[in-house]
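Appendix B. Chain record.
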Amino acid sequence: MKIRRLLMSALLPMTCLCAAAQQGEDNTPAKGDFTVAATLGYNSYTEATALPGNLTDYEAAAFATDWSKKKLTVGFEAGYFVSDKWKLSLGGGINFTHNPGYADKPGTIDANTPYDPDGLVGEIPNYRAVASQYSCTYNVAAGLDRYFSTSVKNLMWYGGVRVGMAYSLNEQKYDEWTAMGKSVGESWSLRGALTIGADYYVMKGMYVGASVDPFAYTYNMTSFRPQEGLARLSADSSNFAILAAPTVKIGFRF
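Structure tokens predicted for this chain:
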């Protein structure tokens, strides 16, 4: 339902605008024009969360790259028309997060004492340390599109290709005696896709559009190093998708 509402929210305004502007001014782009757009869609991104550093057994799983399992995200896209019909594009986003850490606060409960609910009355529980964390996530995508005119003035459809990369890093460190140094989680994805879409130029300097990928392939590698000095624990995956990553956009032309 989310996908259906996303596409309808993009196509209905475009249909109304097209019907109202059949006899209007020609606002289609030309060689040398720049475009900048805000996008809303299932962008190619990845994420990683470091594993606790005091376990006895570990396992790894690749980050899910199925676009239908991802949340809608806001991004940007910049483009340049190298000719009247060909456009180069570049888009992406980046995030940094830092969480300060705090030391543990020991209580009076001894973990080695046999559990006895009645004997714990009045005891003070132990507070674990809060991990100091650093996270960095970014994604970038480049594309090449071929534009085609339609019978509707100022409406153009296009077909093209996209290649992109997404990366995520999460580092955690606990300030307590059971900690085994810094724990690291890392994930990256490579993506290639065929794209089709349409842009309607509302005026000389503004347009709205929608796109979808008829076919897309994504490769992901997810790795963990739960303790300093240990080898990486990794898992990877390959994802093939048809009619993937529907996206809507609103942009400006310069």
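Further analysis of this model is presented in Appendix C.
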